[in-house]
Amino acid sequence: MSSFADYQHEIYFSGLAGNVPSLPMTAAGLEARAREVLEPAAFNYVAGSASAERTAAANTAAFEKYRLLPRMLRGASGPGARDLSIEVLGTRLAAPVLTAPVGVLGLLHERGEAIVAEVTRELGIGMELSTAASTTIEEAGAVAGDWWYQLYWPNDVELARSFVERAEKSGAKAIVVTVDTPSLGWRPRDLELAHLPFLHGKGIANYLSDPVFRAKLAAPPEESEDALRMAILTWAGMFGNHALRPADIARLRDWTELPIAVKGVLHPDDARQCVDAGADAVVVSNHGGRQVDSAVAALDALPTIVATVGDRADVLFDSGIRSGSDVMIALSLGSKAVLYGRPWAYGLGIAGRDGVRHALRCLLADFDAAMGLSGCATLSDLSRTMISSFR
């Protein structure tokens, strides 16, 4: 049974000894603190989105269109009354939450991905490890609990296969193919600083450690600065795949027995094609607003995709979660689980492991408490009857 909401009791009782939290309690507060303490290049890489950032704003604003309809007198608020656990793609989670695959965590902490792996294992929730990680697949997998590997499919098929095979060998429970990033979106915050971390050798650890990639290099990247520079240029020529099509999902099925999810889907026809090609799940996402500005908010796309493929595949949600009530709304609209991104990344930059743990515990406690106070003892209690639309 869930005990995530007990976090508030820890804080209140700590207050009896004169202690108050050193970290903000909200997603907005974590962002504001991160803006104060992080280097501009690191903060803007995490916070920035495409163009005028309308899509990023729409992602959070979309939740304002819905209100919860709490039910009373159902006995769901007491100690041990709630079970928030769920199985998604064969992975058992203590709550329907996974950390989104935020890349280049080395900008925020030298042990970025390893810390997230350790904290999610402790809390019993899922982690999605980005291809664009600062930590290798093997290093993160060695300390992770239940984790999935997010694949940025390069334009070299053997390298793509190598990434997948390394992830499976390292203990990944699923493969998540991100399809909305064949190239990077127009990101003014990074452009104003002329800062792309990959060109500084950050976020490409999985490439530099891959035997297929290394075989393409004239010299090992660790041999000299010139060798590293050539490796970075080789990466630049291989990142992204403009030729990727639904049929490649079937090809991926030949490489692995792991469940396959496709992330970055907003149109129902795309969701249908992915499932027809063999995907076990789709993740409704616009990459946190980082790719196409003025794209539809992810939450607005969710109900139609659930109606289109929800009877044949799991539908997950990403882009815009900032509170426990947001999680409830997304699940009530048909998502089986949610991906949570920027706030815990801010926590990582502010306070390392303590910051990640705090940010995730805040979301989970908020979600747990809101479930109980709304009369929901299990996730099966969440449906369209739990929300009211203000469209």
| β-sheet strand percentage | 5-15%
Instruction: Tell the overall outline.
Output: globular
Estimated radius of gyration: 20 Å
Q: Estimate the helix proportion, in percent.
A: 40-55%
Largest sheet, described in full? Answer: 8 strands, parallel, barrel
In order across it, which strands form the biggest sheet? Answer: 4-5-6-7-8-9-10-11
Distance between the termini: 35 Å
Structure class: alpha/beta
Q: List unreliable stretches of 5+ residues.
A: none
Query: Number of DSSP helices?
Result: 16
DSSP strand count: 12
The SSE string, one letter per element, is: HHHHEEEEHEHEHEHHHHHEHEHEHEHE
Mean pLDDT: 97
Structure description:
The protein is globular and about 70 Å long. It has helices at 7-15, 27-37, 40-47, 54-61, 112-123, 137-143, 157-169, 188-192, 205-208, 211-214, 225-238, 247-255, 268-276, 298-309, 324-332, 342-373; strands at 66-68, 86-88, 91-93, 97-99, 126-130, 147-151, 175-178, 260-265, 281-284, 314-318, 338-340, 387-389. With 391 residues, it is an alpha/beta fold. Strands 4-5-6-7-8-9-10-11 form an 8-stranded parallel barrel, surrounded by 8 helices. It contains 16 helices and 12 strands. The longest helix is centred in the last third of the chain and has 32 residues, at 342-373. It starts with 6 loop residues before the first helix and ends with a strand. Helix 7 links the parallel strand 6 and strand 7.
